Write a sequence for this structure.
């Protein structure tokens, strides 16, 4: 036996070479190293006959590919978690899925088109009322910004809020259409009424969620705020600040939400950390 | 800290590691699970801090005439989770024999 470990069979080398492209670049070397060691063990350390051909030629390549896929999805999940793009993409895919389900349940485009035409008009009338009611009764608190925001940042903020709310409303409309479908043939009038009721109920919830979600996002990058931490002691409320602080994962800033509104800390406060760091650097 | 709820496969893999089966193929062989289940599950367990991995030293590997292996071992949370899983799935203890080294 030579002092260098002998190479793997061509088939397994080809599988590794193809699967490595699925793995993020930063983890590729370690992936190849661990799989090379595993496959080497199977070929050279396990006695012949203990491993079946199926396991060697089907199960193991599947293992290599699923491991590579897991690394890729994990890396995507880490980089996309909480981003506005993921939020919009999730809402859009749910809407498309609901739309496809509605097309199937109404027996094609034509059936759905006839039904949607009349229902969409009623729902469009309801949308401004729902937005008004949601804004009036929403329990969101005012957020004080410690730094003057850039106009472009505010435009992004408003665009994201508008798109998210519109997609959420579209999704609730499609959901209400799908849910009222079973009653559409036996009781068409009751189905119409039920669809509008479902839409109003879901839309109120969706708009409230949209407002709440917008509050819990970074004022710069619009990613969801994370790592909520309690600050202060409730029993010392008159002596010191007490509440919750949430931070942006990118380090743009933190949101302090007071537990009890006091004259010296009445509103939630967004503390921009990038501008304070710039200030320190310039000083 | 509360013990995480593990699937039967994850509990089986955790139990195998606690019994001394410490690298991918070893775990796959003793549990009988397909490689497509074992390797991603090991990564998930490592992400959740239930197992940790270390590379075998190059000298040890070289003396055995093979590439260095990635060995897995239970963390403190992993040991607690393996105990909880054995209580939840009592058959686990009988399914897997201890590894003879």
């Amino acid at each position: 036996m030579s002092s260098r470990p002998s190479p793997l069979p061509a088939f397994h080398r080809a599988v590794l070479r193809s699967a490595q492209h699925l793995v993020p670049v930063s983890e590729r070397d370690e992936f190849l190293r661990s799989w090379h060691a595993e496959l080497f063990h199977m070929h050279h350390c396990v006695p012949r006959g203990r491993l079946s051909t199926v396991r060697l030629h089907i199960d193991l390549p599947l293992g290599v590919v699923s491991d590579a896929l897991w690394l890729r999805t994990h890396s995507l999940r880490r980089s996309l978690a909480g981003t506005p793009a993921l939020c919009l993409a999730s809402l859009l895919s749910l809407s498309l899925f609901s739309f496809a389900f509605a097309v199937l349940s109404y027996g094609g485009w034509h059936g759905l088109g006839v039904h949607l035409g009349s229902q969409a008009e009623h729902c469009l009338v309801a949308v401004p009322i729902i937005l008004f009611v949601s804004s009036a009764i929403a329990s969101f608190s005012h957020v004080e910004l410690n730094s003057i925001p850039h106009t472009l940042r505010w435009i992004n903020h408003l665009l994201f809020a508008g798109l998210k709310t519109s997609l959420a409303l579209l999704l609730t409309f499609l959901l209400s259409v799908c849910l009222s479908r079973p009653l559409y043939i036996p009781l068409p009038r009751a189905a119409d009424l039920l669809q509008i009721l479902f839409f109003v109920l879901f839309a109120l919830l969706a708009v409230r969620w949209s407002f709440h979600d917008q509050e819990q996002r970074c004022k710069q990058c619009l990613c969801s705020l994370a790592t909520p931490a309690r600050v202060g002691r409730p029993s010392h409320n008159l002596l010191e600040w007490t509440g919750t602080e949430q931070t942006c994962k990118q380090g743009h800033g933190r949101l302090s939400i007071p537990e009890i509104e006091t004259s010296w800390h009445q509103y939630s406060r967004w503390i921009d950390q990038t501008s304070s760091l710039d200030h320190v650097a310039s000083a | 800290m509360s013990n995480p709820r593990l699937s039967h496969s994850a509990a089986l893999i955790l139990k195998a590691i606690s019994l001394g089966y410490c690298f991918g193929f070893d775990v796959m062989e003793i549990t009988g699970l397909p490689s497509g289940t074992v390797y991603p599950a090991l990564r998930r367990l490592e992400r959740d801090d239930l197992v940790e991995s270390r590379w075998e030293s190059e000298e040890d590997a070289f003396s055995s005439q093979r590439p260095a292996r990635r060995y897995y071992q239970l963390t403190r949370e992993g040991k607690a989770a393996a105990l909880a899983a054995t209580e939840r799935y009592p058959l686990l203890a009988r399914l897997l024999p201890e590894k003879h080294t």
User: Anything to note?
Assistant: The beta strands of chain A are 143-145, 226-231, 243-247, 253-258, 268-272.
